[in-house]
Design brief:
Aminoglycoside phosphotransferase domain-containing protein; Aminoglycoside 3'-phosphotransferase, Chain: A, domain 2; 11 strands; 2 domains; Phosphorylase Kinase, domain 1; globular; single chain; Aminoglycoside_PTrfase; three-stranded antiparallel β-sheet; 48% helix; 12 helices; alpha+beta
Length: 328
């Protein structure tokens, strides 16, 4: 006998068919079960589902067919990244996957973090501990470039006839002027998650774990620190505390590199939202209180504030100095 599936009403027929086909092919849940299947909030580029048999739960991620070309996501490399992170104890285990990047994984019971939660509950030390473990992972074959990510998203915005907020073009010109500084200074590199928005952190009994490795790869270690601190909306003092937890010998070069990458990452989030909303807003199950527009507005404000307050020549000169032994 085969399993029977009870989908919630908000799962479309197309997603039902794909989910059943994947689950039957993977054959890692067992037979003769009645399985409840319903959406899991989050993953604004993908469809996430929970599969439950009354005793155990699994998480299933189904890919948007055009994601790899449209979003600069590396779907198969994401499997490698999550497997590596799981080996280090900072991600859910993957049980089976398809060549196109769909997969079924361990379902982690925990709190999906949001900016206010991170800051109110002082999760910084546990986040940093998990990040330092992650950055020691085998980087695999993928090289990740945040500037190229933005360029891919901007091409996507044109394809969907999307629009970018006022002030984006000026900020993007400034960001590109800083790109060469980061390349020439040869700052520390390692395996990074590449998309450390708060909802990709899970706080569970075993500590912090990461999900959504679509943008992982070998890149600037400072980028994960920039993403985590900016997307958690940390204040300057909170950011300073976070960076010192990661590297107690924090210096001005590190501060400058993280500052630049917070700016660049904010533009990345804005361009991603402008590209993704027309394409995915009717399919993805978003977290309560989250919207593409709010996400874009917050990040556009971060970028404008940086540009207005920062002498670019000075921050570029500081960022170019890499202390021997610096961790990012």
């Amino acid at each position: 006998m085969v399993n029977s599936y009870k989908f919630s009403d908000d799962v479309t027929d197309a997603i039902r068919q794909k989910a059943i086909a994947c689950l039957e092919e993977w054959d890692c849940i067992g037979k003769d079960k009645v399985l409840d299947v319903y959406p899991l909030a989050g993953g604004a580029n993908n469809i996430n589902l929970v599969v439950a048999d009354g005793q155990k739960q699994w998480a299933v991620k189904l890919r948007d067919p055009g994601a790899e070309h449209f979003n600069n996501a590396a779907l198969v490399d994401a499997i490698h990244g999550q497997v590596e992170a799981s080996r280090l104890g900072v991600a859910p285990s993957i049980y089976a996957y398809s060549p196109t990047g769909d997969f079924i994984s361990e379902f982690i019971v925990g709190e999906t973090l949001r900016p206010a939660t991170i800051r109110e509950k002082d999760y910084a030390a546990q986040m940093v501990e998990a990040m330092r473990k992650l950055h020691k992972a085998d980087p695999g074959r993928r090289r990740f470039d945040v500037f190229e990510d933005i360029r891919v998203f901007l091409r996507g915005v044109e394809v969907v006839n999307g629009s970018l907020p006022e002030g984006f073009d000026e900020c993007w010109m400034a960001a590109q002027a800083l790109e060469a500084v980061l390349v020439r200074s040869n700052p520390p590199m390692g395996f990074i998650h590449g998309d450390l928005v708060p909802q990709n952190f899970l706080m569970c009994e075993q500590g912090v774990k990461f999900v959504d490795f679509d943008y992982c790869g070998y890149s600037l270690t400072a980028l994960d620190l920039a993403g985590a601190t900016s997307q958690a909306e940390m204040t300057p003092n909170e950011t300073e505390h976070f960076l010192k937890l990661y590297d107690p010998d924090l210096d001005d070069g590190q501060r400058a590199r993280v500052g630049i990458l917070r700016f660049v990452n904010a533009l990345r989030e804005v361009s991603w939202a402008a590209m993704a909303e027309p394409r995915m807003s009717d399919r993805a199950t978003l977290l309560t209180g989250w919207s593409y527009k709010h996400h874009s507005d917050v990040n556009m404000e971060l970028a404008k504030e940086f540009l207005a307050a920062t002498p670019l020549n000075e921050v570029a000169a500081r960022a170019a100095v890499v202390r021997p032994g610096a961790l990012f």
